[in-house]
What does this fold into?
Amino acid sequence: MRNRMLPIWTTLVGLVLCGCQGMTQQQRAWLTEGERAFNAGRYDEAIRSLTRFVGEAGDQPELGRALYVRGLSYARSQQREPARADLAQCVRVTEDREVRWRAYSVLGTLDYEDERWESAGRAYAAAVEVAPAVPPTDTLLFRLGVCHERTGRWDAARVAFERVVREYPAGVMAEAAGRRVQIRAGHFAVQCGVFSRETNANQQVLELERAGVSAYLKREPRHGVMMYVVLVGRYAEYEEALRELGRMKGHVPTAVLWP
It folds into this structure.
């Protein structure tokens, strides 16, 4: 769970050190050394250098940048609460839009990984407000939609998915978002199987019914093809659906949550 979203963090690094007016030579060295250490994967070293800089930065504009990179270093070191603290302070002090949306994105990613759906949604919403209209903003929008689903805000989720389809039709999230738009889900369920032939889907429904499980079919697009999906239950709350999923895995080990 903790590492499944880490690839997006690599897209949030690589800011160019520029300006740095008003810094002493030592402060500039700490900031540069910290960023170089981060980019080389030496996170403890990055934290030490950036901590020295933060301690003497005062209200310099580069403070937000240093907090951002130190927050990433903490996150990569699995020190999640210090990472959150740095990133939250970063968005409070920085006026740099680039640093701001990136910091919000990582805050959202940390909370998304930890299944803190409300706070992840707030962070992703703040990120997409100031992020440029290029990837990975489509991924941030898609995750925002997922956060809305998991907090029961289905209409808001559809708005996010529709933006992905409309604004990023060739993006990596377009197909998944398009499916969400088409199925117009308003509840969770447990997905027990996906079939290209209705007869095979009906066979699984019968097998589940023999086991005392009430199942039903739903047709929906998958990879451009209409498929027959076998579902169990209609759950308003994500946690309720998770509990049912655990129970259903006793009947269908490959069961997953829907949508």
